Amino acid sequence: MSSLSNKRIILGVTGGIAAYKSAELVRRLQDAGAEVRVVMTHAATEFVRPLTMQALSGHQIHTELLDSDAEAGMGHIELARWADLLLIAPASADFIANMVHGRADSLLATIYLATPAKVAVAPAMNQAMWAHPASMDNIATLRQRNVNVIGPDDGIQACGDTGPGRMEQPDTIVTTVGSLFANGLLAGKKVVVTAGPTREALDPVRYISNHSSGKMGYALAEAASEAGAQVILISGPVNLAIPPNCQLVSVLSAGELLEASLEAADGADIFIAAAAVADYRAKAIAAQKIKKQDAGMTIQLERNPDVVSTVAAANSALFVLGFAAETENVEAHARDKLKRKKLDAIIANDVSRDDVGFDTDNNEACWIDADSTKTFSKRSKTQLARDIIEHMVHRQSL
Question: Which helix (H) or strand (E) holds 310?
């Protein structure tokens, strides 16, 4: 499966004759599995009409920084959070200079400044402009800021000159973009990730569960796979596609999750407990459907085993990252869980909010370990997962 499967890419198009290649680039990115949104500068619309890009991408084209319709839906901040990658192709000399100086005078420029996602540029300009010391300095500055520079290509240009400065071919850009998500941080490691809710049966048709969608756990599994790990994903019932290159183990109850986790954790290097495990189960499961009664009904519950602390206790060499989904006193409750369950680190998030947490595409979280705290601002769960994996590797020297 392509390395761009399920990736969200904003394609930024700036003014220049190479903008015609962006139309093909949209299709090539989609063919590789990416979901693409196009943002155009005003100068870009003079070379390629927005209607063309809309027809190819299947989505509205974004051009205006102050657009009341866009702000009511996906404004520039939400669009910046949505992306896994901001790809600017072509990137003109003027726009590259604006990036270096942090100018926020267009929609695309504000997205660049606001996004937590990866950023890549495919420069396109006259060979003399490319060779100018100002351009060289600007490109060097972007590289220092972890902006990925793709190209430029060398050859005959629209002006008749020959030399470096042409935008790279779409196929080359797509291949390079795919490689940006494979970082090798966890190469040779075995990672176990739990995800989704558990269901605790009351009778043959009813159960106790929660609102977990599994999106955070699945994003973490995919991020670990991108980092080169062998990934086992143990999942409760969800409606999500299996991440590429991950081995799926499906479970229903907390008991099944514990059994599968203990088996998978044997010989693993990292255990990420993102599943939302039911704390209680029915003491007795009715053999037949419980009939409605006029009077109230009492169901006796008993504690489920604590999956993450049991796995941590059984595997002393395992790095264990827990999750704390809280509705109040988030950091305090998370630190208590970190100590009580003897975890190496914990991710805390507030699930009382409507815009992050359970069953949303975005999340805002806090990494907590014995002697540090790091806050991750609101961003897509896929991007947050990559940031957590990267921080975990660098923080713990895994």
Answer: helix 307-314
Could you tell me how far CA 197 lies from the centroid of its own chain? 20
Domain range list for the chain: 8-180, 190-396
| Per-residue pLDDT tens over the stretch 258-317 | 999 999 999 999 999 999 999 999 999 999 998 888 788 888 999 999 999 999 999 989
- Find out whether 57 and 36 touch, Cβ atoms under 8 Å: yes
Q: Could you tell me which residues come within 8 angstroms of residue 363 by beta carbon, excluding any fewer than 6 positions away?
A: 216, 349, 356, 357, 376, 378, 379, 380, 381, 384
d(C-alpha 349, C-alpha 95), whole Å: 37
Rg, C-alpha atoms of the chain: 24
Distance CA 212, CA 237 (A): 10
Same CATH topology for 8-180 and 190-396?
Answer: yes
Q: Are strands 35-40 and 8-13 parallel, antiparallel or unpaired?
A: parallel
The CA distance from 144 to 247, in Å, is: 37
Q: Which of 128, 134, 159, 182 is catalytic?
A: 159
The secondary structure of 278-341 as a DSSP string is: -SEEESS--SSPPPP-SS-----EEEPP-HHHHHHHH-TTSEEEEEEEESSSHHHHHHHHHHHT
Establish whether 159 is a catalytic residue.
Answer: yes
What are the residues whose beta carbons fall under 8 Å from the beta carbon of 345, sequence distance 6 or more?
321, 322, 338, 367, 368, 369, 392, 395, 396
Phi, psi of 343, rounded to the nearest 5 degrees? -95, 160
Query: Which residue in the block uniquely carries the two structure tokens 């996602």?
Result: 117
Contact 14, 108 (CB under 8 A): yes
Q: How far apart are CA 95 and CA 88, in angstroms?
A: 9
Please say whether the beta carbons of 179 and 344 come within 8 A.
no
Judged by DSSP in three states, 331 sits in helix
| Residue 90 preceded by cis peptide, ω within 30 | yes
The CATH code of the domain at 8-180 is: 3.40.50.1950
The CATH superfamily label for domain 190-396 reads CoaB-like (3.40.50.10300)
pLDDT digits (tens, 9 = 90+) for 71-105: 444 567 888 989 999 999 999 999 999 999 999 99
Handedness of CA 240, 242, 246, 247 (dihedral sign): positive
